[in-house]
């Protein structure tokens, strides 16, 4: 007993120490992965803003060059009608436009077309407004030729008061010269801020936390709580400089990560028109801050101190088994990392054919070593999962006229595998027709893929028959979080006959195995 204690107790103590260290390392790894994911999300959202703003500037330049604008004469009804028709075509066809206007040098509207339920509405001459107090015309007429003026994104003002219900707008304007006398006008486009923000909000809606959009002065333009937005015009206290001064100070220093009151903040400064501004085509160049906030309850947790004693008791009881299991898992993980690294290095430098041949070769090694249907299915999915980025999958073998499941991957605990007869469900239909069945995306509730940060339906579900010599021998049911690219599609097309041939051989050798 004493000899056993001298050997076992030190091992148990080492296991406890290793487990605690591993818990901290794993927690940090998850935190790093979360930060990287949020940084990528903000970078892509910033690119979305760049595209939106750039498209608007390009549209404005195209409109300014149209004959209806170059030849505009306010005293000619037909000239006004031509300008109204041009504006109406843009407002009607582009969901982002709220209105297009032409203002004279005194700020008086000469032509105005609004978005309306029927598409576009030209405003009569007697209803046109004096906008000299807004500064659009003055700012625009001070621009150089072909320059674009960009306003702040703000709530729309009609007759000198904030419009209710609130309607955010973004204005772009250019100085144009029209008519034989080359009279200067301000061409002003108002974008529907709500549409721009909704597009951005939908783009980042997969985030577990919150995503904010701030203007350069720290006022919220997009916030999960609508009451926090538009503080510049409604309540100056709704400003990140007052609510979160530590974060506001960090925003000036470019992309970064910050922990405040237990929440994780990832931020990135976006200047959508920076390139055009550098070329002298935009003035001023708008600047925004994108901020991702992940609250403390959604962050990876560390091992609580109060759980250490129960953990030690459990580990002391199963120290030897836990040590062996941990050693096996660590070796397996290291081997998988080495193999994945090797595959990534090879795939990055090879042509499409080389990549496909390499992966088919790796897959064939695993499935040729399979001695029964279960090991065949397990080896197959273990290889297909990283190669095709599977979210979930199932392999069926055709036995006694029915498709029987032999292996699964990534399926929820509540999911129960079942058999299918020919013609029954998508699996049965693929057996009957020997054709691929596909749902892109599957209907709500069909299958939810779960992960550590949440769950949701796959983007694509494909049911592929495996047949050889005109006879169906099995079915692959694969769920993906994204659509396959052309390289992955070609790999899948070439590998199906190999899988069918190997499965057919196993069925001949083990006709009754599962």
From TrEMBL:
Keyword Acetylation annotated: no
Q: Please state every residue range assigned to the domain named GAF.
A: 370-503
Report keywords, A-Z. Answer: Membrane, Transmembrane, Transmembrane helix
Does the record carry Cytoplasm as a key word? no
List all membrane-crossing ranges.
7-25, 307-326
Q: Where is the Histidine kinase VP0354-like sensor domain?
A: 75-273
Under Pfam families, the record lists:
GAF_2 (PF13185), HK_sensor_dom_bact (PF21623)
The protein's name in its UniProt record: GAF domain-containing protein
């Amino acid at each position: 007993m004493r000899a056993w204690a001298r050997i076992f107790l030190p091992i148990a103590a080492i296991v406890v120490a290793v487990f605690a260290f591993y818990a901290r390392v794993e927690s940090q790894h998850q935190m790093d992965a979360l930060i990287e994911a949020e940084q990528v999300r903000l970078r892509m959202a910033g690119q979305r803003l760049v595209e939106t703003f750039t498209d608007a500037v390009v549209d404005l330049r195209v409109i300014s060059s149209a004959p209806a604008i170059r030849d505009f004469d306010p005293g000619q009804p037909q000239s006004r009608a031509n300008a109204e028709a041009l504006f109406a075509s843009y407002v009607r066809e582009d969901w982002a436009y709220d209105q297009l206007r032409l203002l004279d040098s005194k700020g008086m509207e000469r032509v105005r077309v609004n978005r309306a339920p029927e598409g576009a509405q030209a405003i009569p001459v007697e209803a046109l407004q004096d906008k000299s107090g807004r500064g659009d015309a003055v700012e625009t007429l001070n621009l150089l030729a072909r320059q674009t003026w960009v306003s702040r994104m703000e709530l729309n003002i009609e007759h000198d008061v904030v419009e209710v219900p609130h309607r955010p707008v973004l204005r772009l304007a250019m100085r144009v010269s029209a008519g034989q006398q080359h009279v200067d006008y301000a061409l002003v486009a108002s974008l529907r801020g709500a549409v721009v923000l909704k597009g951005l909000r939908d783009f980042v809606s997969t985030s577990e936390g919150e995503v904010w959009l701030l203007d350069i002065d720290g006022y919220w333009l997009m916030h999960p709580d609508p009451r926090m937005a538009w503080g510049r015009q409604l309540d100056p206290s709704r400003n990140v400089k007052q609510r979160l001064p530590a974060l506001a100070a960090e925003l000036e220093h470019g992309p970064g990560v910050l922990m405040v009151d237990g929440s994780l903040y990832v931020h990135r400064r976006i200047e959508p028109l920076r390139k055009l501004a550098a070329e002298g085509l935009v003035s001023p160049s708008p600047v925004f801050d994108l901020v991702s906030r992940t609250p403390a309850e959604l962050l990876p947790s560390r091992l609580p101190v109060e759980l250490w004693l129960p953990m030690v008791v459990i580990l002391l009881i199963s120290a030897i088994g836990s040590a062996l299991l941990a050693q096996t898992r660590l070796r397996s993980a290291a081997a998988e990392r080495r193999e994945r690294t090797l595959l990534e290095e090879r795939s990055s430098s090879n042509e499409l054919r080389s990549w496909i041949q390499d992966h088919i070769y790796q897959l064939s090694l695993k499935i040729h070593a399979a001695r029964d249907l279960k090991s065949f299915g397990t080896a197959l999915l273990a290889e297909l999962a990283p190669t095709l980025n599977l979210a979930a999958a199932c392999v069926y073998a055709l036995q006694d006229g029915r498709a029987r499941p032999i292996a699964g991957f990534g399926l929820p605990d509540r999911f129960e595998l079942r058999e299918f007869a020919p013609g029954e469900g998508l699996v049965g239909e693929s057996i009957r027709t020997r054709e691929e069945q596909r749902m892109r995306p599957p209907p709500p509730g069909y299958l939810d893929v779960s992960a550590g940060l949440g769950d949701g339906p796959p983007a694509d579900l494909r049911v592929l028959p495996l047949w050889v010599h005109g006879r169906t021998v099995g079915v692959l049911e694969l769920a993906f979080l994204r659509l396959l690219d052309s390289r992955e599609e070609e790999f899948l097309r070439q590998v199906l006959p190999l899988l069918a041939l190997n499965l057919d051989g196993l069925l001949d050798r083990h006709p009754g195995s599962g």
